[in-house]
Amino acid sequence: MHRKKKQTIRFGIRSPEGFQSSTWNCWTENGTGKHDFYLTCRALRGALKTSMHQSGRWRVAFEKPFIAKTSSEIGWSQEDRKIDEWPRPAEIAPGITLAYRLVIPASALTIQVTLYNDDKDVVWIPSPPEGMAVEISLLLTLPGVIVPDWPGKNSLMNTELVGTFLLENGETLWMVHRITPVPQLSTSNLKGQPIWFNSYNQDKLPADGLRAIVIGTADDGSKFLFESAVARSTNT
Q1: How far apart are CA 72 and CA 55, in angstroms?
Q2: Which residues contact 55 (CB under 8 A, 6 or more apart)?
Q3: ∠63-69-71 over CA atoms, to 5°?
Q4: No. of H helices and E strands in the chain?
Q5: 3-state secondary structure of 73
Q6: pLDDT, tens digit, for every residue of 35-51?
Q7: For residue 10, which of 138, 164, 122 has the smallest C-alpha distance?
């Protein structure tokens, strides 16, 4: 009998001025007979999860406890928890798959660092220049694929390593980051109904510290999450 072992990478972005992004958690569990892995925003306390399943059916979905608590407010059911679903992407190079991306602009670093921040075991990525963003990429390499150092280090991508772990099927998951321009997310391209986490009603949202997670598809078909700070409109 195999003992289960959870492998986790916790990460976030922090500036020298004492501000940070949300912190994120990527993990897998060995000893289950599966090679699924997951990504969550820790501030959402498990309400929303991106799941990369070994079946090849990958998705972003609300978790069951969140739906059970809020179904009457947000109108989602246990049978229809997923927000987006897609097949495992094709390889971008022999034996290498770009699994997912998370984009965090400098403008999203609005959480003030305090002694009470939950930053145990967090890998802190340096903040990007003003007007730019950090792109964190999750890449998979098949068993036997030799990668000097980490993917993208010695290429035009010029990546830095966040962390890595081995999946149960022998694939390696790499998490790397680089500086990139901020994606242009125009309101005309945004679809769907916003879900107000932990308030469920726009009028009850707190005045400060508002944040948004946007689920997107890039022009090349790759999937990504975009973390943003949100400011209340001053219009009356």
Answers
A1: 32
A2: none
A3: 85
A4: 1, 15
A5: helix
A6: 999 999 988 877 889 99
A7: 122
Residues for the chain: how many in total?
A: 236
DSSP category for residue 198:
T
Asked whether 129 and 109 are in contact (CB, 8 A), the reply is: no
89 exposure class (CB count in 10 Å sphere: 0-12, 13-18, 19+): middle
Triad 56, 136, 98: Cα angle to 5°: 35
In the chain the first and final C-alpha atoms are separated, in Å, by: 63
Cα–Cα separations (whole angstroms), residue 168 to 36, 87, 126, 176, 220:
9, 20, 31, 20, 29
Residues whose CB is less than 8 angstroms from the CB of residue 165 and which lie 6 or more positions away in sequence, other chains included: 7, 9, 28, 172, 173
Higher-confidence residue: 10 or 78?
Answer: 10
Q: How far apart are CA 110 and CA 51, in angstroms?
A: 27
* Cα–Cα distance measured from residue 161 to residue 143, given in angstroms and rounded to the nearest whole number: 19
Q: Tokens 């569990």, residue?
A: 29
H or E element, residue 52: strand 48-52
pTM: 0.87
At residue 210, what are phi and psi to the nearest 5 degrees?
-70, 140
What mean pLDDT is predicted for residues 110-139? 89
